[in-house]
């Protein structure tokens, strides 16, 4: 290839990759599959390796530098990075609005126009673009001086190395928040727990910690994202006259802005927005700790000015805290379905994340050691969204003199069998197996649960009662329960006994994926059960598959394959399965995926907003059972959007693209029939 042709090919590849990045990160509408993106990157890498003289700093291959730093340089902010005043309730926010009116000399009934944005819980960043090229990234520091983290911000894919289009100021400083999405945070901590290394308290600390790495390769591995929320310095070029238009302009230049951003009139509309986002808070893929309201018009912002370190034209309306302090009263050990013995913290009740919490998981003894927690300690509890409450750290300064260590019991608190800890495993386990009452109870609860055989009315308490009374010892016993036995139980009458027995009878007609899931094989969740059923078609084939055959199933790795094989090697488990089938548990044969069994095959669905009858996860699983693909964002390839209350940009997009939209009732009708 001639040199100009080669140069041209490299430029074209870079443009294609930048375009895909823009669509993926900024517009949230991926345009090509990951594999295609990877191919383009590999091709560019190959060409650049063969012709190092053609490598440029803004090439997408140059995000991760090779040499770690010795220390961070400091950066003086030319325009100080301010912080925000807080409002803790509606009255505070109305006061803020009143002050804005007074200072601007506006009549009370004349509404101020505000831009509303989620307050992302991460780390503030300043990005300096000169001639459209990213030349420096800095932390906020104390607001006047921060640290130079250029090589780390370059690793974040949602930060463009050069701006798109044109017309930008020659020196443009974009400000925003770098944050770690909830899923990345959970995965990072999960990995840390498995490796026995330190976990992060919350996504904010994880983001800040990841940004302050001297070795950019570590930052690159952490899956951080960035969202722009303002402009600091702008020299040699103009900007639009309102905050919201500036953000839209930044978006066109290739920066990500928050999809929830809205412009509203007046403080009451701000309060509505706060309520609406508050209801959505748990569903958002990132953590927010409040809403920021900003006077939209820059001319008005200028008239309002600043007090000390905060602007008078903006305020952060906070959500209830997700972390609080309380006292660890004791630690109990719970035995789960697979025998795992889990330490559970008993706490002095504390209001956190919107509910009163009196128990929190301590995961396992490694975690207890890592936290260094003792009974009597003051601990920090975190409850974010629907995640179970966690003990995230200990306030050692408050440790009382009589604090005592947490000890793993030698024998199972339920059945008395020895508690064992396998080499390399974090969990301690009760060795009692099916003879342990706790394991049996948990196995039965799981078997009856909604995603398993879905036995209506057979809740946790009733299972406890049935096992305690000796009416049910193992799974097949459920199917020989008799009316008088059930009707004689506490708080059970004739009618409820009838209902329960009818529900048990009805549960016999199930599906192979549900049955597999219901067996409670370690590491076999709903999704794995579904792929196993699809892959093998029938139970017998799964029962007899060796680890090699299991490894051929998509998503089944060596650990899962081993758990499955071991499960089906246990004579007891085979007896239980035979007895269940003898009792009448059955399922339709799985046909090769075709038009009949997979009515939604080849269709792409997107779920958005709140579903009220079923959870989003259930809706997703049911759609997948019918063959649909469930995607995270709306694009021209979407066939249908299911929108519940609170749906925002995805719904808007669907309407713009003319994609059919269903509400939850419509979805239920579709799933029914
Ligand atoms: S505006 C002068 N907007 O909250 C205005 N800040 O104390 C300065 N933050 O550390 C900030 N999301 O990093 C603004 N949408 C948003 C924000 C936001 C998060 C952070 C910011 C700063 C703190 C404000």
Q: How would you explain this protein's 3D organization?
A:
The chain has 673 residues and is α+β, with helices and mostly antiparallel strands. It has six domains: 3-62, Helix hairpin bin (Helix Hairpins); 92-318, 2-Layer Sandwich (D-amino Acid Aminotransferase, Chain A, domain 1), CATH 3.30.470; 323-405, Beta Barrel (OB fold (Dihydrolipoamide Acetyltransferase, E2P)); 433-506, DNA polymerase, domain 1, CATH 1.10.150.20; 512-582, 5' to 3' exonuclease, C-terminal subdomain (DNA polymerase, domain 1, Orthogonal Bundle); 604-672, BRCT domain (Rossmann fold, 3-Layer(aba) Sandwich), CATH 3.40.50.10190. Helix content is 37%, strand content 21%. It has 24 helices and 26 strands. Helix 12 crosses helix 13. The longest helix has 24 residues, at 3-26. The radius of gyration is 29 Å and the shape is globular. The N and C termini lie far apart (59 Å). The mean pLDDT is 92. The structure holds 2-(butylsulfanyl)adenosine. 2-(butylsulfanyl)adenosine (IVH) is lined by residues 82-84, 117, 119-120, 124, 140, 177, 229-230, 292, 311, 314.
């Amino acid at each position: 290839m001639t040199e100009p042709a080669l140069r041209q090919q490299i430029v074209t590849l870079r443009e294609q990759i930048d375009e895909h990045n823009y669509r993926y990160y900024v517009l949230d509408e991926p345009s090509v599959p990951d594999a295609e993106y990877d191919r383009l990157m590999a091709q560019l890498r190959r060409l650049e390796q063969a012709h190092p003289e053609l490598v440029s700093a803004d090439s997408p291959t140059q995000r991760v530098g090779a040499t770690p730093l010795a220390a961070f340089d400091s950066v003086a902010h030319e325009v100080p990075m301010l912080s925000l005043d807080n409002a803790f309730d509606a009255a505070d926010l109305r006061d803020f609005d009143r002050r804005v009116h007074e200072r601007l000399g506006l009549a009370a009934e004349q509404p101020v126009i505000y831009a509303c944005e989620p307050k992302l819980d991460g780390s503030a960043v300043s990005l300096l673009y000169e001639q459209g090229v990213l030349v420096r990234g800095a932390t906020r520091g104390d607001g006047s001086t921060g640290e130079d983290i250029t090589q780390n911000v370059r690793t974040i894919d949602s930060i463009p190395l050069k701006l798109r289009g044109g017309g930008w100021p020659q020196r443009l400083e974009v400000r925003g928040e770098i944050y770690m999405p909830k899923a990345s945070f959970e995965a990072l901590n999960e990995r840390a727990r498995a490796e026995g290394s330190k976990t992060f308290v919350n996504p904010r600390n994880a983001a800040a910690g990841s940004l302050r790495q001297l070795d950019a390769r570590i930052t690159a591995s952490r899956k951080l994202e960035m969202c722009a929320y303002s402009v600091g310095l702008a020299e040699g070029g103009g900007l639009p006259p309102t905050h919201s238009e500036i953000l839209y302009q930044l978006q066109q230049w290739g920066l990500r802005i928050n999809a929830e951003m809205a412009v509203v009139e007046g403080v009451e509309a701000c309060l509505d927005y706060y309520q609406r986002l508050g209801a959505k808070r748990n569903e958002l893929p990132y953590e927010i700790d409040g809403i920021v309201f900003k006077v939209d018009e820059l001319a008005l912002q200028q008239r309002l000015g600043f007090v000390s370190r905060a602007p008078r034209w903006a305020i952060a309306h906070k959500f209830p805290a997700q972390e609080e302090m309380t006292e660890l009263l004791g630690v109990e050990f719970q035995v789960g379905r697979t025998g795992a013995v889990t330490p559970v913290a008993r706490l002095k009740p504390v209001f956190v994340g919107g509910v009163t919490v009196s128990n929190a998981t301590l995961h396992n003894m490694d975690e207890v050691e890592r936290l260094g927690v003792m009974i009597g300690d003051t601990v920090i509890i975190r409850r974010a969204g629907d995640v179970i409450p966690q003990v995230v750290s200990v306030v050692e300064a408050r440790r009382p003199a009589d604090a005592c260590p947490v000890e793993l019991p030698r024998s199972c608190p339920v059945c008395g069998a020895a508690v064992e800890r396998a080499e390399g495993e974090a969990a301690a386990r009760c060795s009692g197996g099916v003879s342990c009452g706790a394991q049996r109870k948990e196995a039965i609860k799981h078997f009856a649960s909604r995603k398993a055989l879905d036995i209506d009315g057979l809740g946790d308490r009733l299972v406890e009662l049935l096992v305690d009374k000796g009416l049910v010892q193992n799974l097949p016993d459920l199917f020989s329960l008799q009316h008088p036995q059930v009707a004689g139980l506490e708080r059970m009458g004739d009618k409820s006994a009838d209902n329960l027995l009818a529900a048990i009878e009805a549960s016999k007609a199930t599906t192979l994926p549900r049955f597999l899931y219901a067996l409670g094989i370690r590491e076999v969740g709903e999704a794995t059960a579904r792929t196993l059923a699809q892959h093998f078609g029938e139970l017998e084939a799964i029962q007899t598959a060796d680890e090699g055959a299991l490894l051929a199933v998509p998503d089944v790795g060596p650990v899962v394959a081993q758990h499955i094989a071991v499960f089906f090697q246990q004579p007891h488990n085979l007896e239980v399965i035979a007895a269940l089938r003898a009792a009448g548990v059955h399922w339709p044969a799985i046909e090769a995926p075709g038009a009949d069994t997979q009515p939604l095959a080849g269709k792409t669905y997107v779920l958005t907003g709140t579903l009220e009858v079923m959870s989003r996860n259930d809706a997703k699983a049911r759609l997948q059972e019918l063959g649909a693909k469930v995607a995270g964002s709306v694009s021209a390839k979407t066939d249908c959007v299911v929108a519940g209350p609170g749906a925002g940009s995805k719904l808007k997009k669907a309407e713009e693209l003319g994609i059919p939209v269903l509400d939850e009732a419509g979805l239920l009708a579709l799933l029914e029939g």
